[in-house]
Amino acid sequence: MIGPAYERFRLLGLHEDETLQYCANCKNCDISCPHNVPVSAINMMARAEQCRKKAPCLRDWIVAHGETMAKWLTPLPAALKNFGMDNPLTRKVLDKIGIAEKSPLPLFAPRTFRSLVRRLHQPANAKKVAFFPGCYTNIYNPMTGIDLVRVLNRAGYAVEVPDGFVCCGLPLISNGFLDEASANAEKNMAVIARYRKEGVPVIATCPSCRLMFIQDLREFFPEIVERYGEPDVGDAMRFILDLVETNGIDLPPTREGNIPHHFIYHAPCHLRAQGQGLPSPELLRMLPGVTVDNADAGCCGISGSYGFKSEKYAISQKIGEELFKTIRENAAETVVTECGTCRQQIRHGTGKDCLHPVSVLRRILDRG
Amino acid sequence: MIETSVLVIGGGATGMGTLRDLCMRGIPAILLEQGGLAHGTSSRFHGLLHSGGRYAVSDNESARECIEENRIVRRIARQCVEETEGFFVLMPQDDPDYAEKWIPACAKAGIAIDEIDPAEARRLEPDLAPDARRVFRIPDSCVDGFRLVRHNAMSARRHGGRVFEYHEVTAIRHEGGRVCGATARDKITGETMEIACQCIVNAAGSWSGRVAALAGLDVSVSPDRGTLIVFNHRFTSRVVNRLHPSSDGDIFVPHGSITILGTTSTPASCPDDIEPQPDEVLHLLEIGEPLFPRLREYRILRAFAGTRPLYTPGNAQGRKASRGFHAVDHAGEGLEGMFSIFGGKFTTYRLMAERVTDLVCTHLGVTEPCRTAAEPMVPDPAPDVLEQAARYFPMPDLSLMADRLGDDLPDVLGRARARKENKSTNPLLCECEMVSFAEVEHIARDAGTHSLTDIRLRTRLGMGTCQGTWCALRTLGALADHDIALKKNPPEEIRDFLQERWHGLRPALWGAQAREMAFTRAVYAGSLNIDGALHEQEN
Ligand SMILES: Cc1cc2nc3c(=O)[nH]c(=O)nc-3n(C[C@H](O)[C@H](O)[C@H](O)COP(=O)(O)OP(=O)(O)OC[C@H]3O[C@@H](n4cnc5c(N)ncnc54)[C@H](O)[C@@H]3O)c2cc1C
């Protein structure tokens, strides 16, 4: 028994229920609660309390600290890092500490997004937007970030990637490191507040990072939100959709001979938890020749670092089964979804290619 | 005809404590209760095991009794008491001079108090008012009245006592100025029962005036009504009192996962005048608000009322009436063998029982001393018993269940083990109070259980946030699956049960709880067609 039901017994001083460790923080309970009870936040705070009493294991430290680990490994070339991480021997060792041998660990990109974007030449546009890249884009999948920058450049924006941004803290919270997450929140909120003052919008491509800002921070660290004001981080795809609707960006015209594109879209749980609709399929469907099916088959099962853990790998695959089946049976060759680890899991579960919607958008815009 | 030495009338804390005391002194005794155990005020009260702080200034003698009994009850009834401690809080609107009188009065009564920084108090209880002036810690505790009565009964039975529930005493017989027996009516079967005895102890609480009248006597007890509200969360883990002369609605008491605020005090028309009113609820909220400023945001589960058996010679009323107790030997009024014990508080029930038992002993010439303060009421299970049993139960911590079951624990553990061995499940029927099927089965098969409400009283099933929405339905389903019949058929059982819950919901039905109630109705109308099904049967 977990969630608010168990919170009452915690206050009474009863033993913790061990099933708490199996909460993936996918937030589907938050989505289904008609009373807006922050069920997942209650679980995460209880987990943090447990971690305060008993330090989490090495494995949990590792999966919670992707950003720190990547920093430590910076001097090594990606090929070596990837070989180091993704050879059968290392996977056996990782398995021993609790990272499932078969789980779909992401590979390091040759260069981080931050180092790439620093070198990228952007047109001297007058309008500015700040981008919160998040760890997945920065470390494993810089193309998502680059694609976003290019699409926004086209719409007359210069994209800033502030150095002050650090991990949003979600993996820290999911693994019980609430104090560190609070330190990260403090840093990010200071940056966001600065941009707010300048009137520059801040956006994110990762639904989990965004959810952290617009919802979770208020639940976990109300005093920080009080100090800096509501972190108004926008959804990148919604931002672009708004631009399209106000003619801030031109889409290629529909004409005879448009190449047909067929995608299947998966809405990540943390996007659905925001309760703000699905801007990506709406936007992609405006593109010539594009059809998008909505998979609408629940959670993929990965939930950030959850599906990497040995004792949870099988559960994670089982949760994703329905979605994998829907995708496999769909004629579309490419899956589109905003969340990086969802893409990782879907590739693993279906063998199909997965892209962030902004990458699809850029390809079609570039082709004209 | 049943023969015994002493008949105790009233199965509240006082009566059951008296039965236990008599039995422990080796005197044959039986107890009759018109409803289920703790049908009266002992389950319709605030559940505060007073430290005495509340009475320190106004009645120092009562305060001393409270703290002494508080210590004893914590020791002999560990399973019924949550040792939360309490706060006395001086608010800006309270008279600071009262604190200066209160501090030495506590010292005089022997109550240990400890002043803490209001900021520290807020750290311990984050929802407490930020403008509290002074805060004192005090050894207040919380007590489960129903459980304490039941555990007393278990102990009394072990010493040879007998308890008859749902038996109302309708006549008291005497011959030549001596008590010789009583007549009771079995409220379940309608049959009459005759009892022959040498003594009768009238421990009928607010009803003791009526019981005395059956013997042609007069005792000055006036029922005084008090209303309480139950909130759906444990927003304080300590008892919180206002540091001012006693008044309505100024005490918060946590109980397990809920918190109770109370209480009002108004003269009642009769002992059964226990229908809480919306204006009382609003009045309590208004008075409680200074201590917990967000009070109105919390969800109210229900309201309930009880009647205090106030001792009112010369017609003193309300809070001015004495909160002390009175043990009377009616020989002085010409009836030997008749005793009454009334007034007082739940906290002092054991002392009240001791005093009246002393009178009975003197009358019977028994010299055995009272031992009720020394012997724990139910034994604690060995630690490894619970650990081993954990795998037969669907919850991580068995202590809640073990504490409430007392002597019933071994049977429930046995049932759960047997289910596991037969490869059947032992599902959780009530999440709010962690009640599994094995526990419900044990209680439902007890001869003393007639209704879902009886099951509720013994397990607390249906007393949590869902107020029966889920657990009542599940429980009836599980009982039907196992061919365990209650007195009425399932739709009628459900209707009675929900109707009883509804009584408490009605006076505070707004906001979040109104929404829950609409949901409950939809569940029962939609799944069982409750109204429709009964309607069809009646036609
Ligand atoms: C609102 C409220 C809040 C209170 N809060 C507290 C508190 O926080 N702490 C505290 O210490 N005290 C408190 N009290 C006082 C305390 O609850 C009572 O003093 C105590 O419960 C009385 O117990 P009792 O056994 O004397 O009476 P009861 O519990 O009323 O028992 C009398 C029993 O006699 C039975 N009976 C009556 N007539 C007959 C008959 N003819 N035949 C058979 N049975 C009969 C009744 O059904 C009843 O069960 C509170 C009282 C009220 C009203």
Helical amount of chain B: 25-40%
Q: How much strand content do the residues of chain B show?
A: 15-25%
Gross CATH architecture of the domain at 252-367 in chain A = 3-Layer(aba) Sandwich
Choose one word for the global shape of chain A.
globular
The small molecules bound here are: flavin-adenine dinucleotide
> Regions of chain B with pLDDT < 50 over 5+ consecutive residues?
none
What is the straight-line distance between the termini of chain A? 54 Å
* Number of separate helices of chain B: 17
**How would you sum up the major sheet of chain B?**
9 strands, mixed
What share of the residues of chain A does DSSP label as strand, in percent? 5-15%
Helix-strand pattern of chain A: HHHHHHHHEHHEHHEHHEHEHHEHEHEH
Number of strands of chain B: 24
Put the structure in a nutshell:
The complex is a heterodimer of chains A (368) and B (539). Chain A has 368 residues and is α/β, with parallel strands linked by helices. Chain A has 20 helices and 8 strands.
Write up what this structure looks like.
The complex is a heterodimer of chains A (368) and B (539). Helix content of chain A is 54%, strand content 9%. By secondary structure, chain A is of the alpha/beta class. Among the domains of chain A are: 2-55, no CATH class; 252-367, Rossmann fold (3-Layer(aba) Sandwich). Chain A has a 4-stranded parallel beta sheet, sandwiched between helices. Chain A has a 4-stranded parallel beta sheet with strand order 6-5-7-8. The longest helix of chain A has 21 residues, at 178-198. Chain B is an alpha+beta fold. Chain B has 3 domains: 2-40 and 146-220 and 323-364, 3-Layer(bba) Sandwich (FAD/NAD(P)-binding domain); 82-142 and 224-306, D-Amino Acid Oxidase, Chain A, domain 2 (2-Layer Sandwich), CATH 3.30.9; 383-538, no CATH class. Chain B contains 17 helices and 24 strands. In chain B, strands 6, 7, 8, 15, 16, 17, 18, 19 and 20 form a 9-stranded mixed beta sheet that branches. A 6-stranded mixed beta sheet of chain B has the order 10-3-2-14-22-21, with helices on both faces. In chain B, helix 1 (13-24) packs parallel to helix 5, helix 1 (13-24) crosses helix 8 (349-364) and helix 11 (409-421) crosses helix 12 (437-444). The longest helix of chain B is centred in the C-terminal third of the chain and has 18 residues, at 511-528. Chain B is globular and about 65 Å long. The model of chain B has no long low-confidence stretch (mean pLDDT 93). At the A-B interface, helix 1 of A face loops of B. The structure holds flavin-adenine dinucleotide. Flavin-adenine dinucleotide binds next to helix 1, strand 11, strand 15 and strand 20 of chain B.
